[in-house]
Amino acid sequence: MKVEALDKVKRWHVIYTKSKWEKKVEGLLLKANIESWCPVQKKERQWSDRKKIIEEPLFRSYVFVKIDKDNVSLLICVN
């Protein structure tokens, strides 16, 4: 492959986010048309009056992003 073609290949990167903001960041990235993924696991939580199944991020404070080298700077601008 040519060097120019390698720059256009989308690769997975990991970005660090504020704790408990993983789903929000993923939503903002998807809204900006940036492919992202936040793996979650379902856990049962119990309060004094009820039980509830919630989705927690598998990796706290991290979101996976698939982006090419030219657009990495867009990640800094997403707010």
Give the SSE map:
Elements: H1 3-8, E1 11-16, H2 22-31, E2 35-37, E3 40-46, E4 51-57, E5 62-67, H3 74-77
Antiparallel strand pairs: 1-5, 2-5, 3-4
Order of SSEs: HEHEEEEH
Structural class: alpha+beta
Whole-number average pLDDT?
87
Q: Total number of β-strand segments?
A: 5
Percent of residues in beta strands: 35-45%
Coarse shape: elongated
Instruction: Record the strand order, biggest sheet.
Output: 1-5-2
Give the fraction of residues assigned to helices.
25-40%
Low-confidence stretches: none
Using the CA coordinates, give the radius of gyration: 16 Å
Write up this protein.
With 79 residues, this protein is an alpha+beta fold. The protein is 25% helix and 37% strand. It has 3 helices and 5 strands, in the order H-E-H-E-E-E-E-H. The protein has helices at 3-8, 22-31, 74-77, and strands at 11-16, 35-37, 40-46, 51-57, 62-67.
Task: Fill in the keyword field for this structure.
79 residues; alpha+beta; 3-stranded antiparallel sheet; two-stranded antiparallel sheet; 3 helices; 37% strand; elongated
Can you summarize this structure?
Helix content is 25%, strand content 37%. The protein is α+β, with helices and mostly antiparallel strands.
